[in-house]
Records
---
Amino acid sequence: MASPAPDPGPETSDLTSPETADLTKKMRSEWDERARENARYYIATAKNDWNDEEYFESGRENVRREILTDMGNICQGKDPKQMSVLEIGCGSGRITRALAEIFGQVYAVDISGEMIRQARESLRDCPNAHVFQNNGMDLGVLGNVRVDFAFSYIVFQHIPSRDVIRGYVLEVHRLLRPGGLFKFQVQGGSSMDAAPGDTWLGTPFSDADAAAMAEECGFEPRYRIGAETQYFWLWYFRRTWWSSLWLKLRRKIGSRFRRAPQTGEPVRS
Ligand SMILES: C[S@@+](CC[C@H](N)C(=O)[O-])C[C@H]1O[C@@H](n2cnc3c(N)ncnc32)[C@H](O)[C@@H]1O
């Protein structure tokens, strides 16, 4: 029996334009500046004088809320201590530390060299947390590491380019095991008025945008919560080859029986 044609996978992303290069330079220099001024405040603006204990406890609280309540989707039966996880935009390690207390290995990236310096210093006692400065648009710095779960919180809400965010989603697709979950938060509040290139108020996503980006990048957008708010959470499950095939079949069958708008007759594609 002939085996199914290999799935070509999602599209790739071209982030080589001079505009993207200028934008990543701007993101890096503005986040470095924020990190030098008061990293902990710009990461968690509820306080401007966090002590170590409160700061890392706030990260644990986020992890309790977003991860420990959702271990079925995240671990899918695996022992967390046997899992490798990815964090995009780790800042000075607030959430990275909490992740390292639960999972076997944590790989974390951030665009800001100053944030990474502070994260390395704070995570010296966490040998399973590996933090890297990246270029602000891809995960090349991690090579081909395989991860079982990917996470990002209050990071994409600051990125003023849909292409850069989409590029990250494609990169997660490259590193995440088939069936694995990428759980992340984007800006859903479309009424926010950001100037182009603003590195604090990022680009907003509508519910339809979020669903479309998943499909374009090879994920199933299984759940979405918080559309139209700042905390728009997305659960993207990386498609397996059989779920991609099933999707294609469903689309093909669906399009054959779609009705013509005026006559009500089935239309053939
Ligand atoms: C508000 S902080 C959140 C840090 C961390 N996620 C937390 O909750 O503790 C946003 C972080 O995203 C990083 N960041 C911003 N744009 C980025 C990009 N294009 N690529 C990677 N990291 C980025 C910043 O340097 C900053 O450390």
---
Amino acid sequence: MQYISTRGSAPALDFEGVTLAGLANDGGLYIPAEWPRFSEGEIAAMAGLPYAELAARIMTPFIGDSLSQDKLRELCAAAYGRFSHAAVTPLKQFDEQQWLLELFHGPTLAFKDVALQMLGLLFETFLSRSNDHLTIVGATSGDTGSAAIDAVAGRERIDIFMLHPSGRVSDVQRRQMTTVLAPNVHNIAIDGSFDDAQAMVKRMFGDSEMNGRFRITAVNSINWARLMAQVVYYFAAALQLGAPQRKVAFSVPTGNFGDVFAGYVAAKMGLPIERLIVATNVNDILHRALSDGDYSAGSVTPTAAPSMDIQVSSNFERLLFDCGGRDGTALGEQMRAFEQSKAMQLTNSQREGASGLFTSTRAGADDMASAMRWASDHCGEIIDPHTAIGLYAARSTELAKNIPVVTLATAHPAKFSDAVERATGMRPALPSRVGDLFAREERFDELPGDYDAVADYVAQRATESR
Ligand SMILES: *Cc1c(COP(=O)(O)O)cnc(C)c1O
């Protein structure tokens, strides 16, 4: 399997290459040169497989020769063995039509564990082959940082530097990062906003002196391997609801468009998906893009669903590439113009290509709270604010009665207990496996919002690349 860039000029790479590279060197994102496809019979034969076994089957065509079958099975068993639920991503029923897919049973209680647990193992496997060392640099407003730290803590060939805006992440989110005391984990509280931290990380990716010394990479969802791992749970849920004979719809609380793009990939691979509902909060650039072709970024409004408070959705570029005829040169020009003006119109072919599978909904604060109350009052389920936006969108989308709709539950409600308590009057408790979080020792360094201070800090602690 070869991967090509959405902007047409970076070299094609194999799976090992795209996993270690992250972003393509022409500024684009990597995507498979062609979509692998399973027959109806092959999909039917996957029903009832244990999650790790299903994961290995779905990932095999994407991995090509980069891993042996035995090694792939071993990594899937290790990654998904760390989940606290034997089904890994259990499916629950709300009513005749509405279902909930719980993706938060990993170590840090958000769906990002599903992909990052696997990515950490892939990094380690590939780095030990080349005897190289990786320096992960990231900025987080919460969930990505803790999931990435958990996935790589204690690994010899990786150092991780995670910047968070000082005083602006929740106590649970901060402690999930800062109580990991492994020597390769470096938490930095930046005196500034998330955008300031993010800008410093972007600057470091373009800093030729730093890149000359260190192999610097990202762990956000621009990394193809993360999306690949997320395709698996679309299959897992649909198979339980009667696929391939029966079509299924999904409602996905969306920020960077990574999770819902994985659903699009599942459809390309032959899974019969009726609809993918893109659920946004008031930061609704994706809703505007999908409903009237207007992809223009405003400023971010903070909400109770902070992981969806995003104006520019990196992975949308992958959809525009695939739906718009896979013309990397044209898309490169379109994206560079967008980076200048922060606004663009989708082309007709991009709009038509997307409208076949996607619909979108925007949920305000009241919509979100009412969905939390409905789940609690009618089904006895406490859901988090992100999931509530997905459920609101699922319940307000017109679909035939025989199509089940699966809302992806992206975070455990205890991660956002204040917002849950405000809406439902109930305060969800942290699961016992993370229950001593508030008793553990914390370790992090505070740095001013100054690029040189951060670059010096990284340079003094990271290991040089070969
Ligand atoms: C990251 C995140 C999202 C958004 O996922 P994308 O792949 O960026 O669209 C939604 N909910 C939660 C809880 C998250 O952590």
